[in-house]
Amino acid sequence: ESELFGHKRGSFTGADADKIGLFVTANGGVLFLDEIGDMPLSLQAKLLGVLEHKKVLPLGSTKEVELDVKLVAASNRELETMVEQGKFRRDLYFRLAGMTLTVPALRDRPGAIEKLARLFIERQCLLERRAPPRLSEAALTLLEQHSWPGNVRELRNTIERALLLCRGTVID
After folding, report:
1. Which of 82, 126, 155, 170 fits a disulfide with 88 by CB distance 3.0 to 4.6 angstroms?
2. Contact 143/109 with Cβ under 8 angstroms?
3. pTM of the predicted protein model
């Protein structure tokens, strides 16, 4: 709650200084909330209030802050199912679902694996100021056969490990 809405010094134990919340920090811009499906119901209610009234009240404050924030939220959970199970607020779901995008899991789009792997190789090698090695056919086949339970993050980490171990011009 403090991260999202901020707090005033002394509003709770350990609040030894004022803290500007993410909503105020993002004022005039976009705030991205990742894994919103993990948010407790009590915090969902407060978030709904902020979205409805376009104002935030930092913890321990008596002064509301007007907001002009566009919100983007992501979840790896099926929020509609969570609504039916009573684990996610229906009113918040409909507030957030103005525009929804469903990105299939990496295992369901194997054609993206090679492109993403090459992108991760190029980005990492650019940071390290080295020539990017190529993926061997055997390495690419292994990447395409993996089920990627960790999705794109797992692929990125796998590529970063492969680059650490690669001593030549080919990742096999």
Report:
1. 82
2. no
3. 0.73
